[in-house]
Fold this sequence. Notes:
The protein has one domain (3-117): Methane Monooxygenase Hydroxylase, Chain G, domain 1 (Up-down Bundle), CATH 1.20.58.410. Helix content is 84%, strand content 0%. The chain has helices spanning 3-23, 28-39, 48-87, 91-117. The two termini are 37 Å apart.
Amino acid sequence: xxxxxTNVVGxxxxxxxxxxxxLDYETAPYRxxxxxxxxxxxxxxxxxxxAQKLMRDRQLLVDAISxxxxxxxxxxDNLEMIELGELDDDIEVIREAEDSxxxxxxxxxxxxxxxxxxx
Length: 119
């Protein structure tokens, strides 16, 4: 892989690490389980304000997990495409995957920046 792509991949990985840290990715599934358990309580909507806040917080968590996992999967998919392109000497596949990685780096940086302001 060329040096430029190594830098792009490094930037994406850095953004992923920061997103994971801000999300506290290790505990996110457990927090989501807690939200889901609370939502099942029939008395939740007795306090409309609390229920709406809970639903907003749950949705923010679901969105953050989805964003993180989507970027991680796109990174993996494009790295795999580059490997396959290199094995087959298919410059077009390599170029397409590299372009996708460059676009992904911009998206990852934007999501990272947005997550910094959500706190």
